[in-house]
Write a structure and sequence with these properties.
220 residues; alpha/beta; 34% helix; binds D-xylitol-5-phosphate; binds zinc ion
């Protein structure tokens, strides 16, 4: 079974960010997920390119940058230069989404698109050759620790069918409320890339135990 586990540093102890990311890497994390929030598209404010640059210095893992910001096209260059491996933009923030995805690719970064729980899968139809990853939000973006929205399982299946129909090789990623209880159903619906914040960084037995619990749930 091939899958990606991407710990979201939103839930990490920021006083020990480098150490926490190292622990996640040692425990088998595949990518590091960075949630960029601007207080406009979403209520919360988090990290900028300087944090991506700092992470780039301490890990060789791919860095997955999730832009929850208005006018993301203005900031792509800064995140690319900071060392992002993947940049994910919200369909809801991009009036010229095709151009934005092309720009990301031209910068040598892997383009990804994300849709909110309330956005229909069919908006992806004309774009399936233009992104490497499609992220289906399984909570409304803005905060960690929210409850997984079960109706998104059907949406993952619809996305999988669309990718098959349009002969796209893109991978399906999920983000929000992913834990040992929800991850397997997402995999069965068609997702292969799993972002998890609380389930990893706030696991009572530590970061490695959090990652192991997710891996174990997938291998059941
Ligand atoms: C939510 C973020 C997520 C968040 C997930 O807007 O995009 O990446 O960190 O956190 P958990 O896994 O705690 O739901
Ligand atoms: Zn995210």
């Amino acid at each position: 079974m091939t899958y990606i586990i991407a710990p979201s540093v939103l839930a990490a102890d920021l006083n020990h960010l480098g150490d926490q990311v190292q622990q996640a890497a040692d425990a088998g994390a595949d990518w590091i997920h960075v949630d960029v929030m601007d207080g406009r598209f979403v209520p919360n404010i988090t990290f900028g390119p300087n944090v991506v640059k700092a992470l780039r210095k301490i890990t060789n893992l791919p860095i997955d940058v999730h832009l929850m910001i208005v006018e993301p096209e203005k900031h792509l260059r800064a995140f690319a230069d900071a060392g992002a491996t993947h940049i994910t933009v919200h369909y809801e923030t991009c009036p010229h989404i095709h151009r934005t995805l092309q720009s990301i690719r031209e910068m040598g970064v892997s383009p990804a698109i994300v849709i909110n729980p309330g956005t229909a899968v069919n908006v992806l139809h004309e774009l399936t050759q233009d992104f490497d990853t499609v992220l289906i939000m399984t909570v409304n973006p803005g905060f960690g620790g929210q409850v997984f929205i079960k109706t998104m399982l059907n949406k993952i299946q619809l996305t999988k069918a669309l990718l098959t129909e349009t002969k796209s090789e893109a991978k399906i990623q999920v983000d929000g409320g992913i834990d040992h209880l929800t991850i397997q159903a997402c995999y069965e619906a068609g997702a292969t890339n799993f972002i998890a914040g609380s389930a990893i960084f706030k696991h009572p037995d530590g970061i490695a135990a959090g990652i192991k619990a997710l891996q174990k749930a997938l291998h059941k």
